[in-house]
Amino acid sequence: MAYWLFKSEPDVFSFDDLIARGEKGEEWDGVRNYQARNNMRTMKKGERGFFYHSNVGKEIVGICEVVTEAHPDSTADDPKWECVDVRAVAWLERPISLDMAKTEPRLKDMVLVNNSRLSVQPVSDAEWQVILELAGGTRTL
Q: Which of 8, 28, 35, 129 is most deeply packed, by most CB within 10 A?
């Protein structure tokens, strides 16, 4: 199973907003970066991702799950743009800030640490475990 990180500005769409969407989840639309789109094209149903609040907070706050694999983005006029649907799964016990991730030696190669602008990015198995460790685990919704 692959792991991911999804970034969203919390004043536009927050983890609370995703929780409010329930089991059906929400289309992860509006992505207009080829690398981020290509990451979504490889995602499989059931894969998990961290939910990261960008700009305001700059921290990983929760875990989401892919519920629908890549399909046309309903907000795009051009069919080359695709997205997945995700649903909220759990809160992290403690949010993990970008600054904290940058000071953790085991995360030195993490995409978030080296390219914090990419909106949908892969997370390695080892990075996933380190983040969960630093967060003190998860809290079910």
A: 28
Q: What are the DSSP calls for 52-89, one per residue?
A: EETTTT-EEEEEEEEEEEEEE-TT-SSTT-EEEEEEEE
Reading the block at residue 29, the tokens are: 């639309």
How many angstroms separate the CA atoms of 116 and 19, rounded? 24
For 54-95, write each residue's pLDDT tens digit: 998 999 999 999 999 999 999 999 999 999 999 999 999 999
pLDDT tens-place string over residues 102-127:
999 999 999 999 987 899 999 999 99
63 forms beta bridges with: 50, 90
